[in-house]
Automatic annotation (TrEMBL), chain A:
<dbReference type="InterPro" id="IPR043128">
    <property type="entry name" value="Rev_trsase/Diguanyl_cyclase"/>
</dbReference>
<dbReference type="InterPro" id="IPR001126">
    <property type="entry name" value="UmuC"/>
</dbReference>
<dbReference type="GO" id="GO:0005829">
    <property type="term" value="C:cytosol"/>
</dbReference>
<comment type="function">
    <text>Poorly processive, error-prone DNA polymerase involved in untargeted mutagenesis. Copies undamaged DNA at stalled replication forks, which arise in vivo from mismatched or misaligned primer ends. These misaligned primers can be extended by PolIV. Exhibits no 3'-5' exonuclease (proofreading) activity. May be involved in translesional synthesis, in conjunction with the beta clamp from PolIII.</text>
</comment>
<dbReference type="GO" id="GO:0006281">
    <property type="term" value="P:DNA repair"/>
</dbReference>
<feature type="domain" description="UmuC">
    <location>
        <begin position="50"/>
        <end position="230"/>
    </location>
</feature>
<keyword id="KW-0548">Nucleotidyltransferase</keyword>
<dbReference type="Pfam" id="PF00817">
    <property type="entry name" value="IMS"/>
</dbReference>
<feature type="active site">
    <location>
        <position position="148"/>
    </location>
</feature>
From TrEMBL, chain B:
<dbReference type="GO" id="GO:0009360">
    <property type="term" value="C:DNA polymerase III complex"/>
</dbReference>
<comment type="subunit">
    <text>Forms a ring-shaped head-to-tail homodimer around DNA.</text>
</comment>
<keyword id="KW-0808">Transferase</keyword>
<keyword id="KW-0963">Cytoplasm</keyword>
<dbReference type="InterPro" id="IPR022635">
    <property type="entry name" value="DNA_polIII_beta_C"/>
</dbReference>
<dbReference type="GO" id="GO:0003677">
    <property type="term" value="F:DNA binding"/>
</dbReference>
<dbReference type="InterPro" id="IPR022637">
    <property type="entry name" value="DNA_polIII_beta_cen"/>
</dbReference>
<keyword id="KW-0239">DNA-directed DNA polymerase</keyword>
<dbReference type="Pfam" id="PF02768">
    <property type="entry name" value="DNA_pol3_beta_3"/>
</dbReference>
Amino acid sequence: MPHQSIASFGLCRDCLGRTPPPPPPGRRWRCRACGGPRVVTHPELDQLTIAHIDCDAFYASVEKRDRPELADQPVIIGGGKRGVVSTACYVARMSGVRSAMPMFQALKLCPDAVVIRPDMARYVAVGRQIRAMMRELTPLVEPLSIDEAFLDLAGTERLHHGSPAESLARLAQRIETEVGVTVSVGLSYNKFLAKVASDLDKPRGFSVIGQAEAVAFLGPKPVSLIHGVGAVARKNLESRGYRLISDLRAASPATLASLFGKEGLRLSQLAHGVDHRKVTPERPTKSISAETTLEEDIADLTSLEPLLWRLCEKVSSRLKAANLATAGVTLKLKTADFRLVTRTRAGFPPTQLARRLYEPAHALLQQECAAHRGRQAWRLLGVGASDLKPGEDADQGDLADQTARRDASAEHAIDALRSRFGDKAVFRGISLRHKRP
Amino acid sequence: MKVTVERTALLRALGHVHRVVERRNTIPILSNLLLRAADGALNLKATDLDLEVTEAVAAETAQAGATTVPAYVLYDIVRKLPDGSQVSLESAGDGAQMLIRAGRSRFTLQALPESDFPDIAPGDLPHRFTAPAADIKRLIDKTQFAISTEETRYYLNGIYLHAAAGNGETTLRAVATDGHRLARVDVAAPAGCEGMPGVIVPRKAVAEIQKLLDGVDGEAVIELSASKIRLSIGPVVLTSKLIDGAFPDYQRVIPAGNDKVMVVELAEFTPAVDRVSTISSERGRAVKLSLQEGKLTLSVTNPDSGSAVEEISVDYEGEPLDVGFNARYLLDIAAQLDGDTAFFKLADAGSPTIVQDREGAPALYVLMPMRV
């Protein structure tokens, strides 16, 4: 935990009490009241209001919560023998397993891992429960994914009878006892540093980065600490001598802007610990998509069609749930050697029907398969809906389309049957079709 | 190949032909024009594999033969040559080049062999009729604006041309729609068009035919099969593939029961729509038409910038009615009307509206309303 020197008090994360100044050097600081060791302190602890909360190994934690016998075993959440690791629990991480790692590699590192197929519906439900608890603290909750969010707690002190830090410690404890998963909290004065902070003390952590030490803290860190700086950007920056964040800080904003454009200005600001982005509760959805890594590489259009159909159904049901329609479909493909191909078709009348998503998606897939004469094998298939419109505009029909409303009511009838009797109650024949030998 | 052509004639022919060639091509031969010298004529041909245009120019042929050269380069050279010059075209370097000479200018172009040049292979074109060029041009001029650019419904990317029977007479009819508006235009049926299949002529071919017919009097010969169309006008022959698809049953969307009639002076209506639509933030925002007896109020409200209202007097005797339309589409249709007035037939705020010059005019437009 950074900077424990001049704090006038500490906050106990176990009993949530304030505990007097730190003990003489050499002795561990324990809570005066409960004797717990988890005391967080910082000179600015009472002033900081922006937090980032991140669930620890979320999918794996949910699985362990629901299957206590897995508690001490390495658990990996991921799809099939061919997929990638989406989450590894902390036991599995000790063997070197990381998210986004191909499953075969993960199993080589950790052969006795318990591999569980992700049950997204359950994780989403738990994520919602946690988000609801966050919203009880402040309306300014900006979810980044189902298991992490930014919170702005400015002005909540009187409401919650305590500083943001105290409210957050209470929330973390509440999530742990009521939901049964642990979270890590990062507290700072802007989103960038709050997110950096939440990563410092994982799992079950609580880290604080104050205004006073932000610049000194960032200086020796590699540029890749900055979100948006991935492997390629890092190489690019390093080749120009910007290895550490202090290197970026030493350069003038003008220099960085001339080298990297707008991104250069952003890097310059972040290097100085400046980030003016607000915590905005509702980010309008820009696209809705679904994708799947195939069990084995497939080149043949006929074998891809049922998979494409199921993805369209998935995207369609998400559009319907969000009351949105789409006027642009993107097909996403990944070749066996991990090359990404995306193809978009846009400008059709807004729809939320699986059948109508399938048409353009299928045309694009057919085109792509034909372009490679059916010899290109694909490892991943995805469908995305962009150019989103209000659901009221969906499938209204027009002068050249007399069947839209009929198609819509047919599909909605099928949806109704499925929601009563399950997904297997009614489905289109195409989803049954098997791969040709 | 060795041939001499008069520059003006060559330029005019190149002007017709070279546009077919796509500016960006991955296949080199498709950037080229085919030149074929035969008895007393030089034949030019360009293709994009879907559309092909040929034209013959009178020429002095010293040696028959053929070659292909980059279309835009040849066009630019001939364009810049002095008026009245004689242009000599000659194969050189064992056919790998073509020499162009005019006056003191000399050009050498890289050539590709004639045998590589693709042919659209029109096959049998069993239906043939002759129509006044002005009629064909009218069919295109009045409907082209409604052609869709949407890729998904590819069968809307052209003009549906067919023989239509109604009221005891047959007409040659063109229909185009993008789903929001529809244009339907009739001309007198030329002899021989009755048995023709309904065909969808693609947008690019439509645009080229329109240019070829520009300012041309006389007759155009049209030949077709279910998959190809050929139009000949003088020395120019255009052959195009047709869009392989089913055009929607447009008659079903032309409302028959619209009983609210409004007649408005175009000279007042068009500028007024244009003025009030200034206030809308993005193009294509709705303009609201509020009808009362004898009066039309046009209004636009844009929460970001403000509002606009304009009133004009019209012939209207029905119930008060509010309906919204895309201002751009209203203006597009108004621009097609030939007379001084526009004749609207409306039903309600949610149904398509008909616009014509007058009741029963040969051109009919249908416009979908927008929510306002």
